[in-house]
Amino acid sequence: MSEVGAATADQGRALLALYDRAVPQVYGYLVSRCGSAPVAEDLTGETFLAAVSAVRRGTVPEMTIAWLVGVARHKLVDHWRRAARDERNLQLAAEDIREMDDPWDAQLDAARARDVLDRLGPHHRAALTLRYLDGLSVPEVADHLGRTVHATEALLVRARAAFRTAYGGRDDDG
Amino acid sequence: MADPFDTLRQPIAPLDPRTEFVAALRRQITHELGLDRPETGAARQTTPAATSGTPVTRVHEGYHAVNAYLSVGDALAAMDWYVDIFGATRRGEPIVMDDGRIGHAELRIGDTVVMLADEFPEMDVLAPPARGGTSVSFVVYVPDVDATYQRALDAGAIGERPPADQFHGSRAGWLRDPFGHRWSISTPLPDGPPTRALSAVSGELGYYTLFVPDVDRAAAFYGELFGWSFHEATPTPDGVHLGRHVENTGVPCGVTSDPRYPGATLYYRVADVHEAVAKVRDLGGEVLSVTDYQAGPSAVCRDDQGVEFHLWQPAPGYS
Known about the structure:
Chain A has about 170 residues and is mainly alpha-helical.
């Protein structure tokens, strides 16, 4: 067996050894953000198969749960990208929301806020989830979404505005 | 100034997906990684045919692709027992080692060879008692399961489950033989599987509802505790709002507000709710109401001691 082959087998075994501890973390991360058990299962599957591909290509930086969650985050973004394609018309309407200044000193109720998040379009949901639920920096969000930092800032402003509208709207009928 | 959006920060709450999903995904990645075969990578390259997963077709007469090899504390006594109880026949002479232990012996039960030997602790070959139990069961067909079960118990076996008709078309019982091995003894039912094959899923928990004073607070609490995700439920036909569904639990559940009943209601799955309520009445229970929900008809019942439970016949798409 070549050296590369041996390294690959070692990393494969490391992935399997990590599997039982990693699955609840990856699935827990995904299900709380996409809000659907079947979608979370699909994405969990995609995450681990992507990990297998990375093992085969020898591109795993370090086989850890943190790395697997990072892979899961990319899969989640891909999922929202697909959802956005499916909802292109809806999304165009959402993008139409007037840009506005950001400061807002409301006290957000976290559970209700996540509920509101579930109702947003995929682009907005993706941006807000990466930025606020995951706590990524704006450049990191930009990297995940494949946008420039400037475009990401603008997207975040629109997403926050859409969120605020939805959150306020619920106030009226709740 | 603190950003109100900072409230959204959500650390990972670990959550187990369905066990079948976890097992299937493990099989898949193990296979993709080529780690589901004992051979090394080098061997795989040189002998692809031996590892391609093709089932074996050539075995010796009397053997099958998979054969049982039992380790027992006293091989000669065990052979006598299996001859008496399962009608086994001896196959050849046992191989006796220099120290008197049985190194190998064979029995035949019906069309199947069973191999056995004494314990060889130096090779970590140990009988179930030495390991505190067994994790393997044998399924053996016998002509009359009830007679065999009784004879086995009389001859020192421990009964685990007496023979009963099973949904898959056998009458089967479980026992532990005096040497610690577990056997399921089985006789096919003359008429095949019971006519209502759906009864296999009857009586399983299909749904449960938690009654709480405040649904939003419960959603916040259980959402944080277990990572449950909540979805608005469709209103019931009588206009009562159900509260919210939780769909990322093994058995789906709901949370609803009703100060009259703190606690939970269990919904047991049935194949036919009308048939089931008739049976509830026959058994001395009480049927309080039957309602057609979008998810399927459901009945509120009390058992013959007055304990309330619900029956639910899932509509298509609501399994």
